[in-house]
Amino acid sequence: MLLSDLLAGLSLLDVSLVENRQVRGIAYDSRQVERDFLFIAIKGFKTDGHLFVPDAVERGACAVILQEAVPVPEGISWALVVNTRKAMAQMSARFYDYPARKMKMVGVTGTNGKTTTANLINAIYRKHRMKTGLIGTIHNCIGERILPVDHTTPESADLQQLLAEMAAEQVQAVVMEVSSHALVLNRVEECFFDTAVFTNLTQDHLDFHGNMQQYREAKSLLFAGLEQNDYNPGRKWAVVNVDDPAAEQIMAACHVPVMRYGLKQDADIKARDVRVTARGVAFQAVTTVGKIDLQLHLTGMFNVYNALAAVAVGVADNIPLSTIKNALEQVTGVPGRFELVDRGQPFAVVVDYAHTPDGLENVLTTARDITTGRLITVFGCGGDRDRAKRPMMGEIAARMSDMAVVTSDNPRSEEPLNIIEDILAGVRRVKNALFTVVPDRREAIRQAICSAAPGDVVLIAGKGHEDYQIIGSRRLHFDDREEAIAALGVLKRM
After folding, report:
1. Is 432 annotated as ligand-binding?
2. Which residue of 38, 180, 272, 423 has the smallest Cβ count within 10 Å?
3. Rounded to whole angstroms, how far apart are CA atoms 261 and 271?
4. Is the pTM of this model over 0.85?
């Protein structure tokens, strides 16, 4: 595509079009630049892309897009814009011929439940014989093909390239987890959604958003944008958990019909006769078009909400209730979401991604429901992230567990013992709390499992599906599920 065509429509503060070259690709990382690529300088949180303009040019960039006026080598076209992140989204969408306009787009946002809800919606569309694309925390999928993941929601250039690949492979519906970061940082600009789903909102990411009000406003952006989709035919829907306190603000941002789901408030999609067991949940889903009895292989009240959200999307799309029922009942689990590690031991071992106060409380409530003995919780908190939630999670774990094993999560650049001390501030608020500190996560898991007795539940929380641990600048292989299996092997030999 010609550089002039990519620049058309942008709000340019200044421009120097030395040569109207054919652009062969778009990159925001200078290491990914090839001959005749457009390089977009992004101001990141750890580094500034403007520092790498010379490197990008040396690697073959024919033009650069800037947010700050910095020297550009002679003979290279450049343009200055107010926001290079927004410009990257707009230019990437144009470069890949607006792929989001060619498929049904469903966005799922919320603090907890995005991954499971997105997987359930994806299962419904697949059962409805639609070819789907899935973009999320665990993996991206094009039909049956699984692709790796770097961010919950990719950067806009990567996202538009992925969507273009999906469109080229005749994907009919895309289900995407949409993070608050993605909404604020323009990653989903030019992704025109047909349906937006709100799961819940609890404390998380305040290191980025500053306060809960700004966090709510970030989530609301997805719903405010629904009315802007004039490209795809069909009615637009907002699907909202009305039991969540943030629901009113989310619905206030909507200018399209709202499908409300919940258990407590008046809702269009609701659950009756809920029964929770260790093996799953059963309930009757009451909808605007009829009722279905569901027996899921997912357990916990939080999964009742996730399933109701998926039912609501199916109903909004006029998918038969029988199809919705068959799809949901065939989902056997989601990696790292209340995932059982079973090697025949006389107690339960559960791995879960819970890394927020509300998420940890929900999963502990479910774990308590299925244990006849003690509840032993292994958890930590991530470094370089919201410090305010650390004592909150410490208090929750100490209050709801019979034994809390405080350890490391992904400490990143922080000293692990400093993170643990923040957690212990909350643990110590609980009178007579039983806890131990084991900074080494592998050893913490081993000690917890080796101390378990018949009827106990060992919950390993925080990392879920992740197969790595970030310590300093190193990304090391580490999988809670593998470590649990290894510890169970040690126990069997004892």
Report:
1. no
2. 272
3. 9
4. yes
